[in-house]
Amino acid sequence: MPETTIKKNISILTHILGWGLIGSVLFVFSPLSAGVERPIEFWIKQGVMFSLLISIFYINFFYLVPKILLSNRIRTFLLINFLAGLAFVGILILYDEWMNMAELMHKTYRPNVPYVKRPRNFYWDISSLLIFYVSVGISTSIAVVLKWQSDEKVRFELERQRTNSELSYLKAQINPHFFFNTLNNIYALTNIDVEKAKTALLKLSRMMRYVLYETEKNHTLLTKELDFIRDYIELMRMRLSSKVKLEINIPEKIEEAEIAPMLLLPFIENCFKHGISSQKESFIQVSIEKKGKELTLITQNKVFNSTENTPEGNASGIGLSNTTRRLDLLYSGKFYLEIDDKNEDNEYRVRLNLTLK
Predict the structure, then answer these.
(1) How confident is the model at residue 187 (pLDDT cuts 50, 70, 90)?
(2) I need a surface site. Which of 68, 132, 143, 292 has the fewest CB within 10 A?
(3) CA of 13: how far to CAs of 28, 86, 276, in Å?
(4) What's the chain's Rg over C-alpha atoms?
């Protein structure tokens, strides 16, 4: 049975049980506790009162609250319910006068005492009015809470769809930039060492498989992500000269967890993009460590000027900004990102602490 149908059935059952309880108080517990047999006119009045309470409950629930109160017409809503309360009590008073209820109830409780007509005791009318407004208050509260829950569900669904769309867009931006940079590297290798270029193409094909299949999911295995990063670093290592010192600390064995695919790559790619010089000594440090659920990525590299007006130069910046946005969407409140790019050593340092599932 669909979940919506189950919830609907539970809601109907709740209403039936609720009104059953109120009906029991009106027709069983309260009247029978008096220990006398009341006239049929009394039971008809109880039935009229019960019917009016049910009517006003659902008129308020299905019409007054959604059409008037939630349309910000509060004064109109209060005025209608005030007049409806007076009408409710008025109907009961007219019924009492028509059926001469005061005399009937006197004969029921004091059959041996002559009846003397006295001014009406409004105590019971005030009690009836309070019962009326309790019914209206419960009806209003339930209607408002259900409307809030419905709006919250719609808002959550829209937010989920927006987040998924944005994540797909961000991943679509990151992947082409990565391949653009990598293909440029392989192109450069073809002019230096054809065998290395072939090896690089094989690694790239394995990486493309990862990108095509794993990035379609919101999460992938951490071991697959680290294998992908190792392939990327090995691919980059092929084009580095002896002037570049690499310090890579990625554990071969690590406790399994789930992570968003290609989340770490832009930080590492940024090292190779801006931390290499063909003329000066340079270094790149990459460290990944996992303790419990906490994953830590640390990167460090010297900063050299790049051609920022080229598509490749701009790609890395886009990749980092998009990765930061992905962190906000997927790991809100579960990550700490520190980027230090203003220091005396002219180094670019990144520290990312991430709480994984």
Answers:
(1) confident
(2) 292
(3) 21, 31, 71
(4) 38
The backbone torsions φ and ψ at residue 241, rounded to the nearest 5 degrees and listed phi first, read -90, 175
* CA–CA separation, 337 and 267 (whole Å): 11
Positive or negative torsion for Cα 182, 185, 190, 194: negative
Do the beta carbons of residue 250 and residue 229 sit within 8 Å? yes
Domain boundaries, the chain: 3-156, 161-355
Q: What is the dihedral of CA 74, 77, 82, 86, to 10 degrees?
A: 170
* Buried b / exposed e along 188-215 (16+ C-beta atoms within 10 A): ebeeeeeeebebbeebbeebeebbeebb
Separation between Cα atoms, residue 76 and residue 58, nearest integer Å: 18
Q: What is the pLDDT of residues 88-106, one digit of tens each?
A: 888 888 888 888 777 677 6
CATH architecture of 161-355: 2-Layer Sandwich (3.30)
**Which of 22-26, 46-50, 133-137 shows the highest mean pLDDT?**
133-137
DSSP label of 331: S
Q: How far apart are CA 98 and CA 96, in angstroms?
A: 6
- 3-state DSSP assignment of residue 298: strand
Query: Is the Cβ–Cβ distance between 137 and 61 less than 8 Å?
Result: no
Q: What is the DSSP letter of 72?
A: T
User: pLDDT digit string (tens) for 204-226?
Assistant: 888 888 877 777 777 889 999 99
**For residue 126, with 0-12 CB atoms within 10 Å meaning exposed, 13-18 middle and 19 or more buried, which class applies?**
exposed
Q: Measured between alpha carbons, how far is 339 from 299 in angstroms, rounded to an integer?
A: 10
User: pLDDT, tens digit, for every residue of 229-273?
Assistant: 998 888 778 777 788 899 999 998 899 999 988 888 889 888 888
Res 275: pLDDT: 83
Contact (CB, 8 A) for 240 and 246? yes
Helix axes 40-59, 101-109, angle to 10 degrees: 130
* Strand 282-291, strand 347-355: pairing: unpaired
In DSSP terms, 247 is beta-bridged to 285
